[in-house]
Amino acid sequence: MSEEKDMSRRKFLKSGILAAGALAVGTSIFHTQVAEAAQLPEGEHCAPPSFPYPYVQLDPEKAKLDGYAGYGKSKCSYGAFEAVIGQLREKIGYPYTHVPTQVLGWGGTGGGGWGTLCGALIGAATAINYTMPKSDADKVVSELFGWYCDYAFPEFMPEAGKALEYEGPIEKSVAKSPLCHVSVSVWCDTSGLKAESKARSERCARITADVAAKAVELLNQFHSKNFKAVYKNEVVDDCMICHGKGHSLENTRGMMDCEQCHTDVDPNNLVDHIKRSWDLL
C-alpha cells in the first residue's frame, strides 16, 4: 500500500513539474508577444506604417563597425543595410523593429553573384530610401554612388586580431564605377591578388564599413537640411551632349564614366567618333 502511495506521489510530482514548465513557457511566450505588441502604436496592429519612416541622427563610426560585422554574417548588401536600419531600430523602435534586414542578403556579390551593382551600395541605398521620398532618395543615392566611384577603397581598418578574413593593410584602388565586377577587377589589377582570395573578401568587408558610414553621413546631412550634391562627371556630361535625352543620337542613359568601357573613343579626337556614330566614315 505504501509503495502505491509512493508511486502516486511521484506521478503527481512529475506531472506537476511538467505542468509548471509548460506554464512557464506559455507565460514567457505571452510576455514576449505583449512586449512585441507594445512596440506597435495603438490601432496600427494590422495597418502598414506610413512612408517614409522617421529618422534620427546616427553614428557613422558605429555604422562602420556594424557594417563590417554584418559582412561577416551575410556579406556586403546585408551588412550595409543592417548597419543603418539596425541603429534606427535601436534608437526609434517601431516601425524599424519590423524591417527584416535579412531580405537584402540576395545583394551580395553584386546581386546573386552577378557582379552588377556593388552589394554595399544596394544595402545602403535601400536604407536611405526608407527615410525619404524617392525624389529625394534619388539625389542622395546618386551622391553616394558618385562618391563610391572616385573613392580609394578601403579606408576602414579593423583592430589588430579582429579582422574577418585577412590581417593588416590592404592595397587601395579607385574603381571609377559602382559595379561590383569592375571594382573587384580594378583592385585585382592594382594589388596583383586574386578575386577569390581572402584579401579580396576582406577588402569587400572593409568597403561595406566605408559605404555604411558614408550613407549615414549623407543621411545625417539630408535630415538636418545640410545636404548638398557635389558629385559631377564632366566626361559623362560631354558624351550626353549627343547621346543623352533630347539630343541628336539619344541612344543611352546613365551617369557612369563612359570612357572606362568605351575605350575606342579618343576624347582628343571626337570628330572621328562622331563620324563613326553617324556612319560617315
UniProtKB/TrEMBL annotation:
Protein name in the entry: Tat (Twin-arginine translocation) pathway signal sequence
Highest taxon listed in the record's lineage: Bacteria
InterPro entries named among the record's database cross-references: CGCAxxGCC_motif, Multihaem_cyt_sf, TAT_signal, TAT_signal_bac_arc
Lineage: Bacteria, Bacillati, Bacillota, Clostridia, Eubacteriales
Pfam families assigned: C_GCAxxG_C_C
SUPFAM superfamilies per UniProt: Multiheme cytochromes (SSF48695)
